[in-house]
Design goal:
Nitrilase/N-carbamoyl-D-aminoacid amidohydrolase; 26% strand; alpha+beta; 6 helices; 305 residues; globular; six-stranded mixed β-sheet
């Protein structure tokens, strides 16, 4: 685990009219984040397309592309040019009939370090992701180095050891815990979360607060930085009421304090992370030390009632 401070950037944006325009805009935002000192930049979930999971439509599979592919090729060249690490979440075509909600991790020399596949796949009104996405495979983690792990990864980039989880993953303490145990100094949560328009007045504030509180709790419980870039804007979908993505991207330190926070407008957040704070927090809150790993076997059951 590296000990030098590092600076991260997260991009909160709305999609443009076309995937190409969105990609071009993202390239400019990464350049701006780098200009402001960011060494690791993370885009939002499926950054280069609208959120197409609001209904089931086989034509939407045409949006997917392979990794490596055109988007990651361009981001690899950009990472090398700027000397930055880039996390690129896209809709991935892995094979015919196998599509993933993925995030490619590109190091500062332009090399593709690997790909994370979203592990937890929701299926709710306007979030019909199980129709589109094959979940991450539990047996395709860093098995050689960490045979006890399942489905989660950490990458040793030039600047820091980072973990990536995607959207619905952010509600699961098990995912954050395993990623922290693999050595992550910061967990990135690229996200696409918003309000059903009919629910916003009654539940909107509480939903957003729960989303933020859950991830801050992961930072505290694991002594890591957490960074969550969300999308913004209202996205229409014929036959539905659409979704209003609420933004409010943020970076939390290991103490759960918000050190950078956005509103509901397109924003680039930049925050400095110091591994010394991870060390200090874990010395004073030694949650990892005091875990009763001999007592946790029941968690492997779906339900114990």
């Amino acid at each position: 685990m590296g000990r030098e401070p590092f600076t991260i950037g997260i991009v909160q944006d709305a999609v443009a009219q076309t995937p190409q325009a969105t990609l071009d805009r993202a390239v400019g935002q990464i350049r701006e984040a780098a200009r402001r000192g960011a060494q690791i930049v993370c885009l939002q979930e499926m950054f280069n397309s609208h959120y197409f999971c609001q209904r089931q439509n086989t034509e939407r599979f045409d949006i997917a592309e392979p990794i490596p592919g055109p988007v990651t090729d361009r981001m690899q060249a950009l990472a090398k040019e700027l000397d930055v690490v880039i996390i690129v979440p896209i809709f991935q075509r892995q094979a015919a009939g196998v599509y993933r909600n993925s995030a490619a991790v590109i190091d500062a020399d332009g090399s593709l370090l690997g790909v994370y596949h979203k592990m937890h796949i929701p299926d709710d009104p306007l979030y019909y992701e199980k129709y589109y996405f094959t979940p991450g495979d539990a047996n395709q983690t860093q098995q050689d180095e960490h045979p006890g792990a399942s489905g989660f990864k950490v990458w040793k980039t030039r600047y820091a050891d980072i973990g990536v989880l995607i959207c619905w993953d952010q509600w699961y303490p098990e995912a954050a815990r395993i990623t922290a145990l693999l050595g992550a100094q910061v967990i990135f949560y690229p996200t696409a979360i918003g309000w059903h328009p009919a629910e916003k007045a009654e539940f909107g504030a509480a939903q957003m607060d729960a989303w933020r509180t859950m991830q801050r709790a992961h930072a505290i419980a694991n002594g890591v930085y957490v960074a969550a870039p969300n999308r913004v804007g209202f996205e229409e979908e014929p036959g539905t009421d659409g979704i209003e993505f609420f933004g409010h991207s943020f970076v939390s330190d290991p103490f759960g304090r918000l050190i950078a926070e956005a509103g509901q407008e397109p924003t680039i957040l930049v925050a400095k992370c110091d591994p010394a704070l991870i060390e200090d927090t874990r010395r004073n809150w030694p949650f990892l030390r005091d875990r009763r790993i001999d007592a946790y076997a029941p968690i492997l059951n779906r339900y114990l009632g």
